[in-house]
Amino acid sequence: MDILRLFFDCDEFCRVFEPPLRALLLSDGKRHRQRESTLSTSEVMTIVILFQSSGFRNFKTYYTQHVCAHLRREFPNLVSYQRFVELQSEIVLPLTAFLHTRFGPCTGISFIDSTPIKVCHKAADQVEQGLPRIG
Description:
It is a single chain. By secondary structure, this protein is mostly helical. Helix content is 57%, strand content 0%. Helix 1 packs across helix 2 (41-52) and helix 2 (41-52) crosses helix 4. The longest helix is centred in the first third of the chain and has 22 residues, at 3-24. The chain is globular.
């Protein structure tokens, strides 16, 4: 995946998406610091999207061993892993909207995750053991 092209797409999207979003945000009436982060929203989005195609199994390893070690030239203002995790929570809405704009037309074929949810098995186990069902 071309990092420069991905960053450009994210940055162009954020330039259009963020101003109206800031105008819609509700205030709690208190004054808050509005200090800019050293990493832009588009940089954080780019790193998160790159993780999905990286082959790493967990994000912490990807960020600390790949991004910080090999992508420092592309992202000169990297923050600590803990700070990056905090920044991730701020990009959920822009990232979701960006990815939604990248969907192609529906072909009638969909993929779903069929990973079993442990909670669902508890009720089945109770029935097998003759215990009363809850709920």
